[in-house]
Structure formats: C-alpha cells, structure tokens
Amino acid sequence: MFGPNTSTSTESVVLHSHRDREFIHTYEDLKSLFSEVFDLEKYDIIFMGGSGTTAIESVVWSLMNPIGIVGNEGVFKDKWKQLIRTHGKEGSSKYYREKLYCQLETSNSSYHEDEGIVDAISSFPYYDIPKNTNIFITCVNKQLGGFPGLAIIGVKKNYWTRLKDSDEFSYLNLRRYYEYGLINQTPTTTPTQIYDHFLTILRRFDIHELRDRIDRNSKVIVDAIGEENIIGLSTCPVITIPKENIPIEIAEKWDLYGLHTKSKNYQIFTYSYDNRLYEEFGKDLNETIMG
Questions:
Q1: Per the domain annotation, does 94 fall within a domain?
Q2: Angle between helices 52-62 and 174-181 (to 10 degrees)
Q3: Separation of alpha carbons 39 and 33, rounded Å
Q4: How far apart are CA 59 and CA 174, in angstroms?
Q5: Residue 264 CB neighbour total at 10 angstroms
Q6: Final residue in a domain of this structure, among 149, 183, 203
Q7: What is the pTM of this model?
Q8: Euclidean distance between CA atoms 85 and 67, whole angstroms
Q9: pLDDT 10s digits, 188-203
Q10: Degrees (nearest 5) of the Cα angle 291, 242, 146?
C-alpha cells in the first residue's frame, strides 16, 4: 500500500483501435492539453506504450552522442549507468555531449536538478521540469493519476538533430514515435483505453491540489515517525523509512511498499491514496511506536 501508482478506478472499455478516427482525435487532444496544462509548449510531446523505464531506454538508444549519468547516488542512477553500458553509450571522455539524471531518486528521497535529459518519472509534476531540459521522461500512472502502461516523452523542438533518424529500424527509435505522433498515431498497437482515461483525468487536473496533498501527507507521516527516522527529504512525493524503524506488524497490516522486496527501506508515496488513509496510517504508526 501507498505505492507509486495512484489509486484509481473506472470502467475500462476498449472502444476503438489505435488506427480509428476516435483514437486519432484523443491523441491530438491529449498532446495539446498536456502541453497547455503544464506549460510545455517548447517540447514535442510523444506518447509511448509501456513503462517510464522503457521510455528511458528508448531515449538512450536514440541519442547519437555518449551519455554521462549524473546526480544523486541511488538505485535508479545505477540502473541508468547499466543501461548506457548495455547500449555502448559510455564514451571515453569525461566531457559528454549528453547528461542524464534522475530528478527524484526514490530509493533515498533525494532531489537533483541539472541540465540535459531528466528522468522525471517519479518527480513530475510535483516538481516542474527544469528550465534547461532537452528531453524529459515521465509516465501517466504515478502522480498524474492514470493507469500503468503509458509513458510520456518531451523533446525540445530544436533538439532532434542529436537523435537518430527513423531509417534505423527499431521500436526503441524515438523518432519513429515522433513521426507517427505527427499524424496522431503510434507505430505499435497501444492501450487506447489508457489514453481515454488519462484525457478525462487531465481535463480536471489540479496541480495545486496534488502539491497540497503531497505536502499534507508528508507531514502526517513524518510527524508520526519522527524526522530523525527517515532518509532524505521530509516533504516529498515519497518518504523513505528504514525497515528497522517501522514495527513489522504495522508493515504487514498496511502491506507497505518494500515489504515484499529485498530493499532495506519502506517507501510511502504521499499521493497515491485519499488523505484519510494516510491519517489512519499515521495514527496507527504513532500509537504503536509510542506504546
């Protein structure tokens, strides 16, 4: 519970295919509305079926220059280092044409801001896309409140010269998604119902409500456990707590995120459920710790 996906429900119905007129209109509306809501008109907005991690790999594959991984140490920095090794993008110089970093390293709740290419999968839109960003990657199922299975990539309109041409055939080739996006389609079969659902959410999206919820629920959790018992930021989309600081009966009762993994920490994502549940969890945690 309190994991990275926002709790949401709807009647999931596949009404059309990814080549039908209805989907083309949905894609066009979604592209335009996303840019407008988050003031991202300087970017070409691309939707890609799959996870944010898949979209990161697409960007890495598509870049023509060596990539340097920068920012805070953590699980995701290590993953992206491994990814550039896999794709032979490490380079031999300490000077890189491209920099990729994780804006919010969720493994330790640490924030980093730089220029270049930003993994904003867990940070956006609580944190804005930094000004000097050339490419950003996020997904619809976390803070944005959609269903898992759809990533969003923004490429600065003057940046395409540093990406591979579409004649290098691969379904990791970002330019293929961009060129299909120009006609409001996708190069592969895509989960059309996720687009429909996300468009409904985006039409009523309230960034201030999201940020207030994250701030409020962060305070509830940190007040209950104590700031000295967390790792990293105390007001954040994810609060990281070492496992030894939460009694196992509480972790099992609430099925905390991290309970079923080898991680040394639990993570409480502060946007994924109603405020009431965070208050109940905080009260339960406080009463157990205080005895």
A1: yes
A2: 110
A3: 10
A4: 6
A5: 12
A6: 203
A7: 0.92
A8: 10
A9: 988 888 999 999 999 9
A10: 105
> Which band of pLDDT confidence, cut at 50, 70 and 90, is reported for residue 211?
very high
Answer whether 85's CB lies under 8 Å from 67's CB.
Answer: no
Neighbours of 39 (CB within 10 A): 9
User: Among all chains, which residue has been given the structure tokens 């509306």?
Assistant: 29
Among 19, 62, 88, 46, residue whose Cα is nearest residue 170:
62
What gap in Å lies between CA 77 and CA 74, rounded to an integer? 5
End-to-end CA distance of the chain: 23
Please give the structure tokens belonging to residue 22. Answer: 């209805």
Query: Strand 238-242 to strand 265-269: parallel, antiparallel, or no bridges (unpaired)?
Result: antiparallel
Query: Whole domain around residue 195: which residue ranges?
Result: 21-203
What 8-state DSSP symbol labels residue 163?
B
Q: Is 228 helix (H, G, I), strand (E, B) or coil?
A: helix
Residue 69 lies in a domain: yes
